[in-house]
Structure formats: structure tokens, C-alpha cells
Amino acid sequence: MTTSRQTEALDFPHLRAIVDAVQALPLADRLTVLKALIPSIVCDVRPDEFEAVLCELRLKGERWYEAAANPGEGRATRETPGERTLEGR
Fold it and tell me: pLDDT tens digit string along 28-85?
């Protein structure tokens, strides 16, 4: 997980343990966990903020696919912007 001003106060060891546990589950269960989080997220954000979350998730997937298709080329050669680029870091 990368760090940014939005994540600097998070408990990374605790979150890493959660992520590792979820990643060990079969795909169907991981998707269920992802879907189960949606209502609590929607309750805490405005519709436009939720749309931004969905865009971030889409971008994360596009970025991963691009990296997997171009191993060893590094961030500088990718066309899909990453979080650091979008945040100006």
C-alpha cells in the first residue's frame, strides 16, 4: 500500500493483516467482501465522492493490467497515470 496525505494516519500493519487474509480467500469470497463494503462507504460519502472512489478503483485496475502487460518497464513508460501522478507527488 502506498502512503499519501489521505493514508498517513492509517494503521498499516493492521490493514495489511486484513488485506492478506482477504487475499487468501477464493475470488468469489473476495468479491463478496468488496461488495459488502459498498453500503458503509456510500453512507459516509456524497454521490460525487462515491463516483470518484469508483474511478479510482477503475484506474487502479487499468494501471495493474498495464504493468502486468509490460513487466520491467517501470512507471515512467506507462500511459495510465498512477495515484502519484494524479496527486502531483
Answer: 999 999 999 999 999 999 999 999 999 989 988 888 888 888 887 766 676 666 665 5
| Residues 89, 53 within the same domain | yes
User: What's the pLDDT score for residue 13?
Assistant: 87
Are the C-beta atoms of residues 33 and 25 closer than 8 Å to each other?
A: yes
Q: Can you give the C-alpha Rg of the chain in angstroms? A: 15
Rounded Cα gap, residues 47 and 75, in angstroms: 31
Q: Based on the fold, state whether residues 51 and 38 are members of the same structural domain.
A: no
Range of the domain at 82: 46-89
Query: Are 37 and 57 found together in one domain?
Result: no
Please indicate, yes or no, whether residues 40 and 56 belong to a single structural domain of this protein.
no
| CA neighbours closer than 13 Å in the CB half-sphere of residue 79 | 5
Whether residue 12 contacts residue 2, with contact meaning beta carbons closer than 8 Å, is answered with no
